[in-house]
Amino acid sequence: MPSNTPKEISFTSEVRVRFAEVDPLGIVWHGNYIQYFEDGREAFGRHHGISYLDQKDSNFSTPIVESKCEHKLPLTYGDVATVKTTYVDCEAAKMIFTYEILNPQGQVVCKGRTVQVFVALGGELSLVIPDFFIAWKKKVGLLDG
Amino acid sequence: MPSNTPKEISFTSEVRVRFAEVDPLGIVWHGNYIQYFEDGREAFGRHHGISYLDQKDSNFSTPIVESKCEHKLPLTYGDVATVKTTYVDCEAAKMIFTYEILNPQGQVVCKGRTVQVFVALGGELSLVIPDFFIAWKKKVGLLDG
Amino acid sequence: MPSNTPKEISFTSEVRVRFAEVDPLGIVWHGNYIQYFEDGREAFGRHHGISYLDQKDSNFSTPIVESKCEHKLPLTYGDVATVKTTYVDCEAAKMIFTYEILNPQGQVVCKGRTVQVFVALGGELSLVIPDFFIAWKKKVGLLDG
Amino acid sequence: MPSNTPKEISFTSEVRVRFAEVDPLGIVWHGNYIQYFEDGREAFGRHHGISYLDQKDSNFSTPIVESKCEHKLPLTYGDVATVKTTYVDCEAAKMIFTYEILNPQGQVVCKGRTVQVFVALGGELSLVIPDFFIAWKKKVGLLDG
């Protein structure tokens, strides 16, 4: 029985705002959210076995080709934010993640999305989903084994 | 005689890739492009009289509420990239900039877009275009004086 | 009964190396250790009640006036390092911390030292130890109450 | 006729303070001076033919093993600082640089020093001065040719 909703897997992690990440206006400089997304994506990856180092072991890297960030509220020094990272499955040779960052009060401060492609060790873009990622999809239940 | 094309003003600046901006894969880490956009926007602002410090003198700040980045090609250490920053006029109380970053060979490595809003000194979001920004639009020819 | 050994208090925390902190040589860029020192100092501060925010509540900031860093071994991506932060008591109006950063194998990769001074809210350097810091020294047993 | 003063070569460059380099106190975060030192050292290196890329062409890297920084005055957003980088010759297999950073008023805001060693491509520390660096010393007049 087919489903039209995209299959998703999430993981929630925390990031503590660093003093040097806060700008003269007293709020986290917007560019640092890209780092928070990466922190969330790598926490997801370590938990689900698909981190940068797992990819490297499979002789692939997955450079970001698109990123997007919407800022709703500021974070400030002292905040420990929650990063909810969601892998959004697709049929293309891509990895898509969405992010929701919440402040200590549970309000969404930022939403984002990144798209990654697969590049083999030699530098060649993979036009098909690499075997290691097919295997990962099966392992986590996104594909029938 | 009305025009449907948005009015735009551009400025071109340069950014030299720093060693610490390059990641273990030997390319500029994607999050650093947000900094390059800001470098371009501030170079535009200094040239056209609408930089962060000009805004501050008018008792406003203009936090980023949206940013978007598309990566086409990598930059690496030793590259001096060109940043073309374009102010895209709109009727809302917003500042929209687009960015094109070119490598030393003149190829587009990255395209981006940011949206900023106007916040008064006390922290209140301005729902109308502040006077200083109306004055700036007139000065640079985006509005009839 | 006088003691010639300086009185010290330590705290141990962890820092996970971020991908963007690693340079093209595959090792943590040396400048990032200053951030790791701050991470350690703030973890110490939160534990012992003398963090940046505690100082701010007392209307003081404590800018760094000296920092020193000796690198023994590299850290790389995937490493979770241990930061041992030690407050070294002195009689001057200063805060001195030393740092030892250890890799996952327990080897010292980096040693450091920072010196901070006390600046009152208005911007004036304090030539004497501020009351809040005297109170803190008593609280943690560095001064007789 | 021998000289007791160390032989030195200097180069002066500029660095523009970035918004994201300024902390909530409105001054450049102290850790960013390590980046300014590197900016100065690389500007020196490009001018005198001994930059990171020149070293790499000779199959060597020169990791920092010591760095030191003394802060005298703050820098703030809008400042274009001057970095005076001085190579201080020594007989060991080391590269020693000192730094003086001046604010737009010409006051010294920061002084620093870094020590680098020579590591061959394979990762081995060189206990003697590599040939390419001997050649460089001759070229710039620090050694008789």
Condensed summary:
With 145 residues, chain A is α+β, with helices and mostly antiparallel strands.
Would you write up a description of this structure?
Four copies of one chain form a homotetramer. Chain A has one domain: Hotdog Thioesterase (Thiol Ester Dehydrase, Chain A, Roll). The longest helix of chain A has 17 residues, at 32-48. The first copy, chain A, has 145 residues and is of the alpha+beta class. Helix content of chain A is 22%, strand content 34%. The mean pLDDT of chain A is 95. The two termini of chain A are 16 Å apart. Chain A contains three helices and seven strands. Chain A is elongated, with a radius of gyration of 16 Å. In chain A, the strands form two sheets. A five-stranded antiparallel beta sheet of chain A has the order 1-4-5-6-3, covered by helices on one side. A two-stranded antiparallel sheet of chain A has the order 2-7. Chains in contact: A-B, A-C, A-D, B-C, B-D, C-D.
